[in-house]
Design goal:
The structure holds two protein chains of two kinds. Chain A is built from ten helices and twelve strands. By secondary structure, chain A is an alpha/beta fold. Chain B is built from two helices and four strands, in the order E-H-E-H-E-E. The termini of chain B are far apart.
Chain lengths: 381, 78
Amino acid sequence: MVDPVSEVFLDSSSGEPMLPDARQAWLDAQQAGWGDPARLHRPGRLAAQALDQAREVVAAAIGARPDEVVFTASAAHSNHAAIAGLALGRRRAGSHVVTTAIDHSSVLAAARAAGSHTAVEVDREGHVDLQRWTDAVGTAGTAAACMQVANHEVGTLQPFLEAAEICQRADVPLVLDASAALGRIELANASGWSVLTGWAGAFGGPASVGILVIKKNARWRAPYPTDDYQGGRWPGVPDVPAIYAGAVALDCWLRAGPTIGKHQRQLIDQLRAGIAKHVPDVDVAGDPVRRAPHLLTFSVLYVDGETLTLELDKAGVAVASGSACSASSEHPSHVLAAMGALTHGNVRIGLTWTTTEAEIDRFLAVLPPIVAGIRATVGAS
Amino acid sequence: MSEVAAPFEGLSLDCRGMKCPRPIIEIARRISEVPLGDVVELLADDPAAGPDLAAWCRMRGQTLVTADPPRFLVRRES
C-alpha cells in the first residue's frame, strides 16, 4: 500500500494525524474499556472509569467540572447542540442568535436555523468589533451568542473574555467555540461562557469525538430526544475508546503544548516572512501576533486554488484551500470574504505536532516556482 | 417605465460565466489600456468576483468605484 501521508503534511486544521500516545491509548481502551459504561459488569465499569478520566482531562483544561463535560460525534454536532440547546432553553427570551461573521459554518448554520441571526462584522485581520458585538447582543429577543476563541482558518484570536463579559452584562448565554484553540490557548481560567465546544481531531485525537461542555447553571435544553447516557445531554452509547484517546491527545498538548506551540509560532513567523519575500502579490490574512500558534492562511493573486493545491500535493506538500471549487463548494471561504481578503489562490496551513523547520523550508522552496509556473500558464504576472 | 442602463462608454470587460481568478486576470491585463483616472467596467457573476476584485484593488492600488454584482466599476489609479 502506498503511504497515505504526504511527505510534508500541513493540513492539521482539517484534522491532525493521531498522536502516537493517543493511538496507543485507543488500542489499550479497545482491550479494557470497550464495554457499555452504563452497565454494572466489569467491562462496563472499566469503560465508565475511562470515560470519567476523559471528562476530568477536558474539565481541567477549561476550568469546568467533570460532570459538565459531554462527548458528541464531531465539532459540527457540538456546535449545533450548543446553539440549538440554548435557543430552546431561552425560547421565552426570543430566537435571535448573535455570532461573528467568521465563525465556523456549522455555527452560522445553527444560528440561522434557530431564528434570526446577526453575524457581527470583523476587521481586515478578523477581529470582531466589540461595540457592534455589544449592540447585537443587546438586541431585544437575543437567545444566545457564539464566538470563537481562535478562528479556524486564519488563527486570529477574538477578544473572547471581553465578549463574554459583555454577554454576562446583557444576560445572554455565550457559546465559546474552542475548536481551534483547545490545548493551544490557555483556557483553564476563562470564564463567562455557558457552553464550550471543541473537537478531538483538531489536536491529534480521533475525528469522531466532539466536545460539548455545558455549565450547570446554563439555560440549555437538549434540542433532540435523549436517553440516560451522558446525563441526558447527548444520546447513545458513547464510543469510550475513541473518547479516551481524544483525552490522552489533549493531555499531551496540555503537557507539551507550550513548548510545541512556541516552536509552531516561530515556524509560522518564518512562513509569513518567507512567503512575503519569495512570492510577489500575496495576501497574507489574519493577525500576525494575537493568533493560534499553528495556523496560517494566504492567497496568491491570479492563481486558482485548486491548481495550486494539486501542484503542491504533487511536490509532496499537503495543504487545504478556502478558494471556491477546491473547497468542494461553489462559494469561496466566508471567512476570507468577510475579512476582505483575496479568496482565490488560497492556501490554508495547519502545522502538526511534528512539523519541522526543514519541512517549512521545503514548502518555501517548492512554492515560488509552482506559483510562477501557474501564473505563466494563465498569462498573468 | 423602467430605466434602461446606457451601454458603458469606456472599456468594458464581459467576464460573465468565468470562474475566479479569470475575471481578475482579465482586468489586470487590460486596465493599462485606459488612461489614469478613467473607469473600467467589469461584468462578472462568479461569487468570488466581489471579494476578489475588492482585494485586487487594495493590493494593486486601484479604486473600486461601484460593486453591484454582476457589474463592477474600477478607476485606474496606477
